[in-house]
Amino acid sequence: MNGVHDMGGMQDMGPIQYEKNEPVFHARWEGRVRALAHAMAAWGKWNLDADRFEGELIPPGEYLRESYYERWFAVLVALMVKHGLVTTAEVESGMPATGSPKATPPLHAAGVLPVLTTGAVSNRDVPVAPHFKVSQPVRTRNMNPTGHTRLPRYARGKLGTIERDYGVFVFPDTNAEFLGEKPQHVYSVDFAARELWGEQAKPQDAVYLDLWDDYLEPA
Amino acid sequence: MKATRRDFLATAATAAGAAAASDLTAHAQDSEHGHAHAHQAVPSDMALRVKSLESLLVEKGLVDRAALDALVDGYEHKIGPRNGARVVARAWVDPAYKKRLLADASAAIAEMGYLSQQGERIVAVENTAKLHNMIVCTLCSCYPWPVLGLPPVWYKSAPYRSRAVIDPRGVLREFGLELPEDAEVRVWDSTAEVRYIVLPERPAGSEKLNEQELAALVTRDAMVGVKKVALSQSGGAA
Prior knowledge:
The complex is a heterodimer of chains A (219) and B (238). Chain A is of the alpha+beta class and 219 residues long. Chain A has helices at 28-41, 48-56, 60-65, 68-82, 88-93, 112-116, 172-175, 193-197, and strands at 137-140, 159-169, 184-192, 206-212, 216-218. Chain A has a five-stranded antiparallel sheet. Chain A is globular and about 60 Å long. Chain B contains 13 helices and four strands. Helices cover 52% and strands 10% of the residues of chain B. Chain B has 238 residues and is mostly helical. Chain B has helices spanning 2-15, 18-33, 45-59, 65-78, 81-93, 95-103, 105-111, 145-148, 153-156, 158-166, 168-174, 211-217, 220-224; strands at 121-126, 131-136, 184-189, 194-199. Chain B has two domains: 43-78, no CATH class; 81-224, Nitrile hydratase alpha /Thiocyanate hydrolase gamma (Nitrile Hydratase, Chain A, Alpha-Beta Complex), CATH 3.90.330.10. Classes of the chains: A alpha+beta (219), B mainly alpha (238). At the A-B interface, helix 1, helix 2, helix 4, helix 6 and helix 8 of A face helix 1, helix 2, helix 3, helix 4 and strand 1 of B. Strand 4 (206-212) of chain A pairs parallel with strand 3 (184-189) of chain B.
């Protein structure tokens, strides 16, 4: 989706607001909402791509106005309601609906550290042939899907070179909408800065993106 | 036109996250100008809403409160840039480790216990006098948290995400880093599930320092690639 989240190359967003000795969280609720989202993901009702897509569905004005963890809160509530784990009425009242069954949480304190030292894993150990090889020139597709995609606008229809093959990963565009994992190769693709931005860029500079087979065609 | 847009963004930033934003502003003014500003005494709307959501989810048996405490403790104390700093220092003193790190960072980081063996794919990119790497996620907030912890607010915000790819030299200048005209800049946009960490240049004059002393010099910002490691640095990886 050509949403406001796809910010690469936008201008006039103002100076970078650097905070010295920044704390991990600026208020207690930020840590709690992050932990809630993490713990609720353990139910396996949605995946990382669906989570990102939900954030992209926040209307652009709100997306820009809200803080990072306000967006996390909105995304978590939306996902839980969509997947039937809570109702809007329960979120508003803070109380379980009368007669609703009590579940057993899938994530316990002992399981937390392994989760934190694993990070996001979406590679798949399945034999899928790569469409491209290292050093091969490629062009990114000119596409404008209304769903989720990880091919940013600034890098569509551009010439690049396959730098490295990272192996097989879940395809976000389908996975985000529960249409299948469609595992395929992800490559590091090298784009000359001038290919992306024209003469204003230095001839020696480059931007590298990690891109799936379905985003690329031979050049 | 320009002014209007800026005003909108400024208003947006001010309105964002009642508690977070006002605490931030008050804090920045406190430390920079020595003025005392009243902090918000009543819990913010977000604090109340999150508290209410947490009690609902605990009540429904969907989350375990001890797991939430462990997660927050993990974000604040178990992961963080100290891990990455130790990886960098090891690479500076041990050429064989550096080779392994550049060839397969996930395995080299797992060796030091900061990443599980089945953990996400991490790639280390090396800065030299002629080549400068920096990391961004233009689409969201992807960041190598097993080694750097959770990203700072600026990394997740519109100014950095938008400009890092189109004007990396301008962004670096804002961080106080002026690169030579002929240096090559490589920006890594984390669009997939591969995470990047910059192996910064070891500062000149650090030859006599041991691994632990070197690790104390390495900052988060240097491992994101927006600053260099300085010999005089104090305060570590904040």
